[in-house]
Q: What sequence folds into this?
């Protein structure tokens, strides 16, 4: 089920390409929890999502102390921008 109403999804505006997704997973492997949390928050802040949506996902990222959970929340944020309804 697609939920994106705009004809140009956020993922295309933000340029969250397969290459950037691969780089995200590489950062996940080599960064500390704190570094990855800061990196994740910055990616959300730099995106073109609404301020309300950004704030919600940043809060979710900050609430967890586990990198794998941060990664899931961040990927969900960008996939939601594709209209995938995650």
A:
């Amino acid at each position: 089920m697609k939920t994106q109403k705009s004809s140009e999804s956020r993922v295309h505006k933000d340029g969250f390409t397969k290459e950037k997704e691969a780089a995200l997973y590489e950062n996940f492997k080599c960064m500390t929890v704190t570094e990855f949390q800061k990196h994740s928050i910055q990616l959300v802040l730099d995106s073109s999502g609404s301020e309300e949506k950004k704030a919600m996902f940043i809060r979710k990222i900050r609430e967890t102390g586990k990198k794998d959970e941060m990664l899931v929340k961040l990927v969900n944020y960008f996939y939601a921008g594709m209209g995938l309804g995650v």
Remarks:
- The mean pLDDT is 82.
